[in-house]
Design brief:
This protein has about 220 residues and is of the alpha+beta class. It is built from 8 helices and 8 strands. Among the domains are: about 5-65, Winged helix-like DNA-binding domain superfamily/Winged helix DNA-binding domain (Arc Repressor Mutant, subunit A); about 145-219, Ferrous iron transport protein A (FeoA) (SH3 type barrels, Roll). It has helices spanning about 5-20, 25-35, 35-50, 65-85, 95-105, 110-120, 165-175, 210; strands spanning about 55, 60-65, 145, 155-160, 180-190, 195-200, 200-205, 215-219.
Length: about 220
């Protein structure tokens, strides 16, 4: 039996492994879950004993096949719930994350498969993240670039908003940013790398830290 805490840890480790394409450190896991490093180290050791992760001190944490299977199940539930809450119940994309965090732990495979079918077997959630199918297979992701690393004087389309806080999501919404929004990257300040984007002819500042959450493709 896998409890909520175990599911949260496995999901967090999977996300860090995927983002970095390498092992996660216990510090990174602790930061992502907002838990003390000591508690994280203790939990990581328990997960290793149960065969969910491979862990060596100073070498980081990676999921085993069994750990990855569970993490993908949780991500599937989370991302399908986010899409359902927006499409069916009309919540905003800044409201759905916390609700999906709760629902992902209590939803049966039967129910989530029915939700998947009802939504038409979608490939991506409202933030552009890939949704695993019931076999744990992820759809192919296009090659995307963080807006923070893009050249100015070019138009881009937003395809993924990654791991952003509700406050940041609300700011993006307030300036007209949503999935598939097209923008023109008009400038960048040298001293702090703040970007200036234009959406529908209106210019907005976006800090470098904000821009790291936006992944785009050229229009």
């Amino acid at each position: 039996m896998v409890n909520i805490s175990t599911e949260d840890y496995l999901k967090a480790i999977y996300q860090i492994n995927t983002e970095k394409n390498e092992a996660a450190t216990t510090t990174e896991v602790a930061c992502k879950l907002d838990i003390s490093k000591a508690a994280t180290t203790e939990m990581v050791q328990k997960l290793s004993e149960r065969g969910f992760i491979n862990y060596e001190k100073y070498k980081g944490v990676e999921l085993t096949d069994e750990g990855k299977k569970i993490a993908l199940q949780i991500l599937r539930r989370h991302r399908l719930w986010e899409l359902f809450l927006i499409k069916v119940l009309g919540l905003t994309w800044s409201e759905v994350h916390d609700e999906a965090e709760r629902l992902e732990h209590t939803t049966s495979d039967l129910l989530i498969n029915k939700i998947d079918e009802y939504l038409g077997f979608p490939d991506f959630d409202p933030h552009g993240s890939p949704i695993p199918d019931k076999f744990g297979v992820l759809p192919e992701m296009p090659a995307l670039t963080p807006l923070s690393e893009c050249d100015t004087g070019i138009s881009y389309r937003i395809m993924l908003v990654n791991d952003a806080s509700n406050e940041l999501m609300n700011y993006f919404t307030s300036i007209g940013i949503e999935l598939k929004t097209e923008l023109y990257l008009s400038g960048r300040l040298d001293f702090d790398r703040t970007l200036f984007i234009e959406i529908n002819g209106i210019r907005h500042p976006v800090t470098e830290k904000m821009a790291k959450h936006l992944f785009v493709e050229k229009v």
